[in-house]
Write a structure and sequence with these properties.
With 525 residues, this protein is α/β, with parallel strands linked by helices. The strands form six sheets. A four-stranded parallel sheet has the order 10-9-12-13, with helices on both faces. Strand 6 and strand 7 form a beta hairpin. Helix 1 crosses helix 4, helix 1 crosses helix 16 and helix 12 packs across helix 18. It starts with 6 loop residues before the first helix and ends in an 18-residue tail after the last helix.
C-alpha cells in the first residue's frame, strides 16, 4: 500500500539500499552471498515462520533487485550465481519482469464468502432469503454457508444488516485488472505472462511481499561510476515523492548520486501532446472512429493484447519518456539516460528493441530512495546555493502524471490549433476500468472520442514504484500545474527553443514510432 510504511515497505527499502551500496562499493561475489546474513543477523525469525525461510526469501529479493532471475525452492546454487552477467552497465532485463516468490506466497483463497463472528442469528435472516442456491442455513443460531453450493454471488453480503458476511478475494487477483493471476498446483499465485502487462499492481497489493519486480539499480550505478555521463530523466509524478520541498533540490540530489544532471520528462510530455493533437486532428473521425493515447505502456499493452483490432486506434506518438531521452541524447551524444518514475511497466517499454538505444535504465522512485540512502544523500542536506529548480515544461506537461491530464493537454492544444473543433473525451484509470472503456469503444460507443487510459488508479501517481499516497501526490501535482507560468506546450520555454521545424518533426516523426509493432518485437536480449 503506497503511503504506508509497513514491514513490507521496510524490507523493500532495505533490499534496494543494500544492492545500491554493494554497487557503489564494488562488492565481490562472496560478499553478495553473505548479504542475507548481514541483513538478518539474528537466529530468531521476525517476519516469517523461521529465519531460514526469511533469508531464502530475502535472497531472491536481492537477486531480482540485481536484475537476476528468480529461482524456485527446487533450484540450488549460490546466491551470486549469474552475478558476472549482471555486473555490466549494458545488462537488460530478462523475462519475466514481475515474479512470484512461490515459497513466500501464502496461497490465499482465490475467492470465498464467509460468515464472521458478527452474525447475530437474527429473526429475519435475509442472507438465507436472498441466496439463489439455498447455500445458507442456520446452525446453532448462526448463519452457515455450504461451500459446495455457494456461487460467490455476494447477495448475502449485501443483505446482512450487520455486515457480518464478508467476501474475501486474494489481494493480488483483485488488483490485477488484466486477469493475469491464477493458481498453481499448490494454490499459490502464478502470473500468466501472456496476459500480464507489468503494471505491478499485484506487487503493491500482496500483503506477504511475495511478488517482486526486477531492477537495474546495480547496472545504473555501474554506469555512474564509469566515464560515460548518465542523465536522469525524471517523470512529473516526482513532485512530493521525497518530501514536499523536494522540487527545487531534485537536480542537486541526482548530481550528488553521480548523475551528470536531471531533466524533467514533462518536456517530452509537451512534445507528446503536440504529436497526439496532430494525430487526432488528422485521423478522427475521417480515418479512425476514435483515438487512444499512447503514454501509458500498461494501457497500450492491454489494448493490443485484448483488442488487437484496435491497434491502429492507438496514437503513434512516442511517449514522454522516449521523447525526453532522444532530446537528451541529441544534445549530449554518447551519454546514457536513466528514466526515473513511478511505473513498473516503463521497464518493459524501455526494453523494446527500438527503444533500447534511447532509454538505458528505468528506475522507480522507490528504488532511487534506496540509492540515496546508500550514497548518503539527503534532501535535507542540500544548501540553498545548490537549488536547481525545473522550470522549462508547461503545466499541461506536469498534468500527465494524473488521470485525465493527457487528454486535457491534447484538448488544450487542439483548442489553439483548431479553434472550434470539438474534442470529446472518455477516460479510465486502473486496468479493469480500462478494459471496460475499450469494450465500449469496440461496441461503437465512442465515435469521435479521444480515449485516455491509465493502468494505475489515479494515473501515473498510483504506479507501483511510488513512495507516497497517490492522493497526496495528485494534489501536489495539481498545485504545481496551477503554479506554472507556461500552461500549454505552446507556452513552454523549451518548445520555443526548438525553432527548427524540421528538427522538431524528426524528433516526433512516425519513422521512430514503433507502437504498431508492439507484439511483433523481440523485447529482450
Amino acid at each position: 500500500m503506497r503511503g504506508l510504511y509497513s514491514n513490507k515497505t521496510a524490507i523493500r527499502h532495505m533490499v534496494f539500499t543494500e544492492v545500491a551500496r554493494f554497487a557503489y562499493e564494488g562488492g565481490s561475489k562472496e560478499e553478495f552471498d553473505q548479504l542475507p546474513y548481514q541483513m538478518l543477523p539474528s537466529e530468531h525469525n521476525k517476519f516469517r515462520s523461521n529465519i531460514f525461510l526469511e533469508r531464502a526469501v530475502l535472497g531472491e529479493r536481492l537477486r531480482t533487485a540485481m536484475g537476476l532471475p528468480y529461482r524456485p525452492a527446487s533450484q540450488g546454487g549460490p546466491l551470486s550465481a549469474g552475478l558476472e552477467e549482471a555486473a555490466t552497465g549494458e545488462r537488460y532485463y530478462t523475462p519475466p519482469l514481475i515474479n512470484v516468490i512461490k515459497f513466500a506466497c501464502n496461497a490465499c483463497p482465490e475467492k470465498r464468502v464467509m460468515v464472521t463472528n458478527g452474525c447475530q442469528g437474527c429473526l429475519e435472516h435475509p442472507c438465507m432469503e436472498v441466496c439463489p442456491k439455498n447455500a445458507i442455513s442456520m446452525v446453532n443460531g448462526k448463519s452457515t454457508i455450504d461451500e459446495s453450493k455457494c456461487i460467490k454471488c455476494g447477495k448475502c453480503v449485501a443483505a446482512c444488516p450487520y455486515s457480518a458476511i464478508i467476501k474475501q478475494e486474494r489481494p493480488c487477483t483483485r488488483a490485477c485488472g488484466a486477469g493475469a493471476i491464477k493458481n498453481d498446483e499448490l494454490g499459490r499465485a502464478e502470473i500468466d505472462q501472456n496476459k500480464c502487462v507489468s503494471c505491478g499492481q499485484c506487487l503493491v497489493s500482496c500483503p506477504f511481499g511475495a511478488i517482486v519486480d526486477k531492477s537495474q539499480i546495480y547496472q545504473c550505478i555501474t554506469s555512474l561510476k564509469s566515464d560515460v555521463p548518465v542523465y536522469a530523466a525524471v517523470a512529473p509524478a516526482f513532485v512530493g515523492q521525497w518530501g514536499d520541498a523536494c522540487n527545487e533540490k531534485v537536480r542537486a540530489v541526482f548530481k550528488r548520486m553521480g548523475f551528470e544532471d536531471a531533466v524533467e520528462v514533462s518536456i517530452g510530455a509537451d512534445l507528446c501532446t503536440v504529436a497526439e493533437a496532430r494525430d487526432f486532428v488528422e485521423e478522427v473521425p475521417s480515418k479512425l472512429d476514435f483515438m487512444a493515447t499512447s503514454c501509458c505502456p500498461a494501457w497500450a499493452a492491454l489494448a493490443k493484447k485484448n483488442f488487437p483490432q484496435m491497434e491502429k486506434n492507438i496514437s503513434m506518438a512516442l511517449t514522454p519518456m522516449v521523447l525526453t531521452a532522444r532530446l537528451i541524447k541529441k544534445e549530449h551524444p554518447g551519454c546514457k539516460v536513466a528514466f526515473i518514475g513511478p511505473c513498473a511497466a516503463k521497464k518493459l517499454e524501455a526494453m523494446r528493441r527500438t527503444i533500447r538505444s534511447d532509454v538505458d535504465y528505468v528506475l522507480t522512485f522507490e528504488e532511487v530512495a534506496g540509492m540515496m540512502e546508500a550514497k548518503g544523500v539527503s534532501f535535507a542536506d542540500i544548501p540553498q546555493n545548490e537549488y536547481l529548480p525545473f522550470n522549462e515544461a508547461s503545466g499541461d506537461g506536469y498534468g500527465f502524471a494524473v488521470s485525465g491530464g493527457v487528454a486535457e493537454a491534447v484538448k488544450h492544444v487542439i483548442a489553439k490549433t483548431n479553434p472550434g473543433m470539438e474534442v470529446k473525451i472518455a477516460k479510465a484509470e486502473g486496468l479493469a476500468e480500462c478494459k471496460k472503456l475499450l469494450m465500449m469503444a469496440k461496441a461503437g460507443k465512442y465515435k469521435g472520442y479521444l480515449l485516455e487510459g491509465m493502468g494505475c488508479p489515479g494515473g501515473c501517481v498510483g504506479g507501483a514504484g511510488t513512495i507516497v499516497d497517490p492522493t497526496k501526490t495528485t494534489k501536489l501535482v495539481q498545485t504545481t500545474v496551477k503554479a506554472k507560468s507556461a500552461m500549454t506546450p505552446f507556452d513552454s520555454q523549451y518548445l520555443a527553443k526548438l525553432e527548427d521545424v524540421e528538427e522538431r518533426a524528426k524528433i516526433m516523426s512516425a519513422d521512430f514510432s514503433d507502437g504498431a509493432a508492439w507484439e511483433k518485437e523481440t523485447f529482450f536480449k
